[in-house]
Amino acid sequence: MLTANKGSTFKVFKQLVKRDIRVASRQRSDLLNPLIFLIIVVTLFPLGVGPGPDILGRIAPGVIWVSALLSSMLGLERLFRDDFRDGALEQMLLLPVAVEISVLAKILVHWLLTALPVLIITPLLALLMNLPLQAWGTLWLTLFLGTPVLSAAGAIGVALTVSLNKGGALLSLLLLPLLIPLLIFATAAVEAAVAGVSPAGPLALIGAFMVLCITLAPFAVKAGLRVSVN
Amino acid sequence: MAVLLEANELMSIRGERMLFSDLQLSVHAGEIWQIVGPNGAGKSSLLRILAGLLTPQAGSVAFQQNPIAEDRETFYQNLLFIGHKAGVKAELTAIENLEFYAAVQGVELHEPPYEILAKVGLVGLEDIPAQGLSAGQQRRIALARLWLTQAPLWILDEPFTALDVEGIALLHTRFAEHLSAGGAIVLTSHQELITELYQVKALTLRYQH
Amino acid sequence: MWRWLHPYAKPEATFALTQKLIPWFALPGIILVLVSLVWGLAFAPPDYQQGESYRIIFVHVPSAMWAMGFYVGMAIMGVIALVWQIRTAELAILAIAPVGAVLTFISLFTGAIWGQPMWGTWWVWDARLTAQLILLFLYLGVMALYVAFEDERAGAKAASILAIVGVINIPIIHYSVYWWNTLHQKSTVTRAITRLEAPSIAPEMLWPLLVSILAMLLVSIVLVLMRLNNEILRREIHRPWALAELGITLDSSAKAHNDAEKKNVEKKGGADAV
């Protein structure tokens, strides 16, 4: 009689992360495009509203965050699209661990690949938009705390739309309303920092929103994937 | 022989059409079941229900007497499912693909599985990203998992597609090996399984209007 | 016949039930709409600040209230559809979503009409208006996702999940929007609005308002039930009972059918207790 070995949950998680990073490292242009889009959009604003540093500094938090939201929509589909096409998604649902764990691995990889570069170029964006120096740290913190929300909530949207041919525009329609609290809290935090007030309150709210998304999203993603793979 | 997989009063409806109802199936260790039927009769749906990918409208599936929804960890440690889509990542090489599936299924590999890839006819192609290979060759990467796995239950959707005569013969040998070791197989196939190595049991689904 | 017994007995039963319920909601609904409109528009006293133009609240407030209420109802149907895989609950989502979206739109539209004479502008980024606009997007998302799937049941499940995610997020969205609004309250317009929020409302205005709220609920429920029945009929059109349902209406309008067919219809339709 055949018997199967018991693999540990953590091992499966690690394998998924390793594989996805390896896959992504072989299609680098996909990773760069949203980043370039983000930089270009932020560059367009001074051209559109004029280069006056006082105006730019005032709208900087909103512009940077709206651009970050939009650019994250661009690369979001990658989260499950290829896996759906080649059957790896199906196999992921058949792994001997809770699907939520695998979903968390996918979310983590997506965050590492899309948010980390944004966090690295944040100073450049702040510089381009003339954001007062005392708010740079807060801007970075809002992005650090907020980008996991983009990956987690984004995963829900992608899980629901991945089997559709033209999911792209629909994805934004589904997700952007859900992300409004994030936009409000984040810009409020940066604006507080610009005004010299403590941004602790809105930062704590972003943190709470992030924890909520990361804990609840995997369940919704799992349900969405089960609909989509059928 | 022990019952590995048992399906009770399964019913499946796709869209507005009833595919099957009251379906019973007991898969014992050492048995190979072929699901037969015309296109659209629900063969793939049945396999996906058995694998727990699809929820039936009624009925239940149990693995070793435990409903699969209740103990999914045990079930998926003991199941190998290969569907229409092979689950092979095109950016990764054959070796990397196999190593991933071995690792997540808890199979220890002491060296890269060159031997197995040689067996399925992928000599010299081990280190090319799978996107450079033909459909048949990609399929062979997925099927190479059959040599790596220790799972007793295999569910295979059209395993013979895109395989040449040699590949088909190879698969038959592997099936026979697996069955005599106490494994079980449920599969679909358009062609009849002509082999003297084992006895095939058939479950026929009819197209229902 | 036996094949359809298990899950498909349900829509049939629901259809019969809703057919019975519709008049019970429709009749009081129509009466109350008339009462509240006549009372509100003709007999309630004019507002001491806003004059006659405040009377739009008899449409605006009920639609704004139930826009939210129906979203919650839709999400509850989503839970039922996902957990118990009940077909009728899936169709209920499809029935509720457009009604809710229209309620949301009415509240936005009447809000804009009201805003023009009051605040001198069609649109202000008032917290309630903004939250309502986002609610409209949420409704549109659910509807768009539902129809995007080729397999209708998959679409229903996806829409259910989205509705549930949305309903969890709605309190957060509301809180954040209100907070955002107080944070940015710089314009005189928004301050004027907050001033207009009278803490108490005269009973002569309150009563017709309460009646109009109830009337809007009843009428919306009737619309949802009618939509639900249409959706059920559309899905079940090839089933004997649905044909019987339609056959009976054909029969009464034009007695052109022969007796044999009539008997057939009656035999099969009898169980529906229409």
From TrEMBL, chain A:
<keyword id="KW-1133">Transmembrane helix</keyword>
<feature type="transmembrane region" description="Helical">
    <location>
        <begin position="169"/>
        <end position="190"/>
    </location>
</feature>
<dbReference type="InterPro" id="IPR026031">
    <property type="entry name" value="Cyt_c_CcmB_bac"/>
</dbReference>
<feature type="transmembrane region" description="Helical">
    <location>
        <begin position="31"/>
        <end position="49"/>
    </location>
</feature>
<protein>
    <recommendedName>
        <fullName>Heme exporter protein B</fullName>
    </recommendedName>
</protein>
<keyword id="KW-1003">Cell membrane</keyword>
<feature type="transmembrane region" description="Helical">
    <location>
        <begin position="55"/>
        <end position="76"/>
    </location>
</feature>
<keyword id="KW-0813">Transport</keyword>
<keyword id="KW-0997">Cell inner membrane</keyword>
<keyword id="KW-0812">Transmembrane</keyword>
<feature type="transmembrane region" description="Helical">
    <location>
        <begin position="202"/>
        <end position="221"/>
    </location>
</feature>
<dbReference type="GO" id="GO:0017004">
    <property type="term" value="P:cytochrome complex assembly"/>
</dbReference>
<dbReference type="GO" id="GO:0015232">
    <property type="term" value="F:heme transmembrane transporter activity"/>
</dbReference>
<feature type="transmembrane region" description="Helical">
    <location>
        <begin position="111"/>
        <end position="133"/>
    </location>
</feature>
<comment type="function">
    <text>Required for the export of heme to the periplasm for the biogenesis of c-type cytochromes.</text>
</comment>
<keyword id="KW-0472">Membrane</keyword>
<comment type="similarity">
    <text>Belongs to the CcmB/CycW/HelB family.</text>
</comment>
<dbReference type="GO" id="GO:0005886">
    <property type="term" value="C:plasma membrane"/>
</dbReference>
<dbReference type="GO" id="GO:1903607">
    <property type="term" value="P:cytochrome c biosynthetic process"/>
</dbReference>
<dbReference type="Pfam" id="PF03379">
    <property type="entry name" value="CcmB"/>
</dbReference>
<keyword id="KW-0201">Cytochrome c-type biogenesis</keyword>
<dbReference type="InterPro" id="IPR003544">
    <property type="entry name" value="Cyt_c_biogenesis_CcmB"/>
</dbReference>
TrEMBL record, chain C:
<feature type="transmembrane region" description="Helical">
    <location>
        <begin position="21"/>
        <end position="44"/>
    </location>
</feature>
<dbReference type="GO" id="GO:0005886">
    <property type="term" value="C:plasma membrane"/>
</dbReference>
<feature type="transmembrane region" description="Helical">
    <location>
        <begin position="161"/>
        <end position="180"/>
    </location>
</feature>
<comment type="function">
    <text>Required for the export of heme to the periplasm for the biogenesis of c-type cytochromes.</text>
</comment>
<dbReference type="InterPro" id="IPR003557">
    <property type="entry name" value="Cyt_c_biogenesis_CcmC"/>
</dbReference>
<keyword id="KW-0813">Transport</keyword>
<feature type="domain" description="Cytochrome c assembly protein">
    <location>
        <begin position="23"/>
        <end position="184"/>
    </location>
</feature>
<dbReference type="InterPro" id="IPR002541">
    <property type="entry name" value="Cyt_c_assembly"/>
</dbReference>
<comment type="similarity">
    <text>Belongs to the CcmC/CycZ/HelC family.</text>
</comment>
<keyword id="KW-1133">Transmembrane helix</keyword>
<dbReference type="GO" id="GO:0020037">
    <property type="term" value="F:heme binding"/>
</dbReference>
<dbReference type="Pfam" id="PF01578">
    <property type="entry name" value="Cytochrom_C_asm"/>
</dbReference>
<feature type="transmembrane region" description="Helical">
    <location>
        <begin position="205"/>
        <end position="226"/>
    </location>
</feature>
<keyword id="KW-0472">Membrane</keyword>
<keyword id="KW-1003">Cell membrane</keyword>
<feature type="transmembrane region" description="Helical">
    <location>
        <begin position="64"/>
        <end position="84"/>
    </location>
</feature>
<feature type="transmembrane region" description="Helical">
    <location>
        <begin position="129"/>
        <end position="149"/>
    </location>
</feature>
<feature type="transmembrane region" description="Helical">
    <location>
        <begin position="91"/>
        <end position="114"/>
    </location>
</feature>
<keyword id="KW-0201">Cytochrome c-type biogenesis</keyword>
<dbReference type="GO" id="GO:0015232">
    <property type="term" value="F:heme transmembrane transporter activity"/>
</dbReference>
<keyword id="KW-0997">Cell inner membrane</keyword>
<dbReference type="InterPro" id="IPR045062">
    <property type="entry name" value="Cyt_c_biogenesis_CcsA/CcmC"/>
</dbReference>
